[in-house]
Amino acid sequence: MSEQSVNIKSFGPIKNVVLPIYDIIIFNGRQSSGKSTIAKVVYLFKSLPDIISQLIVSDRNLLQDFDKKLVITVRNQILAMFGTTKHFNDFEIILTYGEQKFIKIVKDYNSGHARVTYSKELKDALKEVANSSEIFWKSSANESINNFNAFYISRAYFFNEIHEKISKIFDEQREALYVPAGRSLVSTLSGELRNIDSYNFDSLMKDFVQKILHYRDRFSKNLDEIIEDKKRLTANPIDFEKVSAAKKLITDIIQGEYRYENGEEKLMLDKETYVKIKFSSSGQQEALWILNLLFLQILDNKKSFMVFEEPESHLYPEAQYAIVKFIALFFSNTENQGIITTHSPYVMAALNTLLLAGQAKDKNAEKIKRIINKQFWIDISRVSAYFVENGEIKSILDNETNLIDPYYIDSASSAINEDFDALLELGGANVPQ
User: For the Endonuclease GajA/Old nuclease/RecF-like AAA domain, which residue ranges apply (predicted)?
Assistant: First the structure.
């Protein structure tokens, strides 16, 4: 486990949460308990390094009001993700990236807006990178006029250098992706996605749509052709075993393949037969872009952090198990990290099954492989799991079994079974004795 952590106090539904950042974080709990709020704060934590990197490479007068620009960058993200904080109680969020490197966000007593403070160590490190940016823009001013090609090459090198420096400062090299709940709406509006700004969506849904617009042209071909294109166009290694497993899971879950042709989104049932995405089932619509994004992340072998909100939405239990396997396949690249939020006992049971497989000992490993592909096994040392309730989190990992406590999987079923048994005892509803 790294030194990274997120502390949240009195923010929205959250009373007090201290969350160490593990590779795989699982949140279970009732609706409106605060799972998404915590997930969004962690996403803010993970996405800020890239946003700050973009600020540094794009602002040619960066050192002018540099401290203020750093503050506004965070404040704008808070506003975009959570709206105004004026109606919030006095809150505190601390994003800790390492020893003495943190960002503190509290409610300003006068304005009600978020007041942002960077630790001295973090601010000094960022200012050093900003100085190098200032030097680059000044030295390249004439070059951009006299030799555009040389300027273009040096600018690309400069952007990459800045990104690497920021990644080192924050100890964060992953692309951050948020897969929000309610994503079937994106499929319903498939023909109008380029007009996304005209809809009153929150920033995370808009970012999600922008990712879809960025990637969907790659799906003008079938999955095998996409894989072949990748083989031809990259010298980077491709894990074909994982890619093959991903391809099979897609067809198992949505019973077809996604295709984007001539501005139209389709679900190909076979080579000729298709259903327009907006007329496909709600389960297919909800799962579609989780699957597509995961497939590309695995094929491109990217380092990523992904938030999966309610991956089970509208899926049959067997398909829920399959989508958990797909997410586990993504996590099998140990550089990847992410969060799963769920209400589903089937998702929790599926995670427990893969955690149990991950405990395989040498003598049983080969037998377990025949039951569950090793690519789906989950290493407990990378996992934290919590039940979110009353604004706080409670670990639900059993230290003795190294599994999720069955109580948090079976509690809903237990309540139903208790009522059912009570009815049987009464002989009610004409139940035969």
Answer: 4-347
Place of tokens 């807006």: 113
Give the pLDDT of residue 197: 59
Burial class (CB in 10 A: 0-12, 13-18, 19+), 428: exposed
Q: Across the chain, what does the average pLDDT equal?
A: 90
Tell me the C-alpha to C-alpha distance, in Å, between residue 89 and each of 92, 114, 202. 10, 11, 22
- Beta-carbon contacts of 233 under 8 Å, excluding residues fewer than 6 positions away, are none
User: In the 8-state DSSP scheme, what is residue 216?
Assistant: G
Longest CA–CA separation in the chain, Å: 94
- Over residues 366-377, the mean pLDDT reads 92
Tell me the residue type at 334: T
- Quick one: three-class SS letters along 241-256? HHHHHHHHHHHHHHCC
Q: Can you tell me which residue has the tokens 């699982």?
A: 26
DSSP 132: H
> What are the residues whose beta carbons fall under 8 Å from the beta carbon of 313, sequence distance 6 or more?
181, 183, 184, 282, 283, 286, 287
User: What's the one-letter identity of residue 125?
Assistant: A
Listed residue (412, 324, 351, 389) closest to 31, CA to CA: 389
Ordered DSSP codes for 145-169:
HH-HHHHHHHHHHHHHHHHHHHHHH
Residues 6+ apart with CB under 8 A from 290: 179, 183, 308, 311, 323, 326
Q: Could you report the per-residue pLDDT of 279-296, keeping only the tens digit for each?
A: 999 999 999 999 999 999
Helices (H), 303-344: 317-331
> CB of 288 within 8 A of CB of 368?
no
The yes-or-no verdict on residue 100 having pLDDT over 60 is yes
In the chain, the amino acid numbered 403 is L
- Span 6-13, mean pLDDT? 96
* pLDDT tens digits, one per residue of 114-138: 999 999 999 999 999 999 888 887 7
What's the rounded Cα separation, in Å, for the pair 60 and 137?
6
pTM: predicted TM-score of the whole model, two decimal places: 0.91
CA atoms within a 13 Å half-sphere pointing along the CA-CB vector of 70:
23
- The rounded distance, in Å, linking the Cα atoms of 212 and 206 is 10
Distance of CA 418 to the CA centre of its chain: 37
CA atoms within 13 A on the CB side of 175: 12
In the prediction, which pLDDT does 433 show?
A: 52
Reported as a single tens digit per residue, the pLDDT across 249-268 is: 999 999 999 999 988 899 99
